[in-house]
Specification:
The protein has about 350 residues and is mainly α. Helix content is about 55%, strand content about 5%. Strands 1-2-3 form a 3-stranded antiparallel beta sheet. Helix 7 packs parallel to helix 8 and helix 9 packs across helix 17. About 50% of the residues are buried. The structure holds coenzyme A.
Amino acid sequence: METASSSGLEGVNAANTAISHVDGEHGRLVIAGADAEQLAQIATYEQAARRVLDAGRAAPVDLTVAQLAQARMHAWELLPRLGDALDGDDGMDALRASLAHLRSTGDDLADAVTAIGAAPVFAAAWSRKVRGLAPVGPSADLDHATDYLRMTTGATPSPAAAKALGAYLVTVIDHGMNASTFTARVVASTASDLISAVVAAVGALKGPLHGGAPGPVLDMLDAIGTPANAEAWLLGELAAGRRIMGMGHRIYRVRDPRAAVLEIAVKPLSTPSLELAHAVEAAAAKILREKKPDRPLAANVEFYTAVLLDAVGLPRAQFSPTFGVGRVAGWCAHVLEQRRVGKLIRPASTYIGPMPA
Ligand code: COA
């Protein structure tokens, strides 16, 4: 009979990882030895990516601004060969289909740099295409976050906007054994290649219960319009049997610490929607406390993601792909870590159907 240990289930429920730690009771996120709040303020995306890729490795990874810029250039050269991957209205479909065009070299580290460099190029090219605009190529002189914003908008962003987007990308780089990371690890555990693991992870991230919420959060803020409307609008949503987007989390029983990081990061941009967001969050927290007294439901990362990404000038359809642009380094780090574990992840299932007579 298959037991928990022979099935690999122990690796599912309690995977050891040096990449990140989520403390749901106290609302703390540690990314490879640093508090997420601090990391988001001091690290560029390149530095954070190197940090997660390095986690638990004997030899440090070499990942420079120039190497990542080169990877963006490589992806840019692939654009004409992506077929219809960037057609269509869904940015996550476009990200999945375009990343699937990357060829694995069999060298995980090289593939990781390729995937991390390609994600912003493909997401930005899709975003421009869907708006009827020609793609804008990468710049070797810019850091990853600044270049992603420039490739999206077509103009060099203000340092404040680039810094805010960089803080966002660092904040979401990894988050324990979330659904997309678990997906990447399952694929990697079969000894499949890193690109396949990343493509599968994009599929998991697409869902609104995982990475698909920030666009709907902005729709909600638009629909509410002014703080005075918040309570009535939110009550109407709950009465209609719908969930409040950007609220609640599977692990956190307090406010998601990333919400505070993003709130701080967006402040210098003086966006009017921040005030509205604060009012809506307070109203939602109050109503959910009353309606679900047994279940703490506070703001999650997506709440202020919506405000921040809107403030830096990204179209809302690009919010979920942008989550992928940030998370891809975490996925890659987990693939590298899973390789070191070297064990197939194979949860056991309990058969509840009829047995043959
Ligand atoms: N609004 C209203 N009610 C919510 C809620 C929300 N945002 N999140 C959870 N609940 C309620 C559920 O209806 C359920 O109530 P019930 O027991 O009366 O049926 C209870 O809280 C538990 O929900 P459950 O779906 O079991 O919790 P979970 O841990 O699986 O859910 C999320 C986590 C994130 C999927 C959930 O909070 C959610 O759907 N949030 C909105 C989407 C979102 O913001 N996603 C981004 C996540 S980072």
